[in-house]
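User: Quick sanity check before I run a bigger batch. Here is a single chain. Can you write out its predicted 3D structure?
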Amino acid sequence: MPYFQPGDVRTWYDVHGDGEPVLLLHGGFVDSRSFGPAVAMLTDRLRVFTADRRGHGRTPDLPGPISYDLMASDTIAFLDQVVGASAHLVGYSDGAIVAMLVAIRRPDLVRKLVLISGNFHYDGMTPGLLDGFMTGGLVQRLGPRYGEVSPDGEEHFPVVVDKLLRMMAEEPTLTEQQLTHIASPTLVITADDDAVTLEHTIALYRAIPDSELAVVPRASHLLVVEKPAQVYPLIADFLTIEPAPTLQPIRRSAEPSPAR
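Assistant: Done. Predicted structure follows.
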């Protein structure tokens, strides 16, 4: 499998299918293997790029903290140098935060944007959730999976978990005003029982000018695992099919018809 080195980190990635490029950005504590169902459902219409971010999967960790800004910089370098063109971005959880930052910093690189269970500010997470990660045995549950492919070995996973929890406690710190600068057509997806509060997700949806909202019923923050047959066809249609006209618009009544 190929590797790409943007600066100091040797990043693992893979490519499947043909068509317009889409980059899948995985969540925290896991890696691009979690997008297995997505790759299977999207490659008949799109050229799908998957990559393991620093400290995740087959990409090693480096000394020092991990931040969303740092991962956004890595992603921008990947789009510039590997994809070589603008692409659709599909981000899940932490990956959605990275996707938002890329869309704000480099709108020229983002065609359409899909944000699954992502928060734009750290206070959008359900109170007490991060403490629950530690008491819930996160390291024990996910450590063996991490160790299967990580060049750092399973014993390094608690180090990465500590870095990510520190990051999540203080980041991201985007504002609704900053979200108004996202120019890409955007699909916001959440579960009805998500780790990101529904109120926060609605604020995200309302702040991004050309956005759509989908709430997956009877699902949690793990909706991409629980309901892939609902989530990924929805994404595929959003990325590849022109939107049907809204017959009774309210929120969009003053907006011009979207051009995708």
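Residues 43 and 128 are 38 Å apart (CA to CA).

User: Great, the batch can go ahead then.
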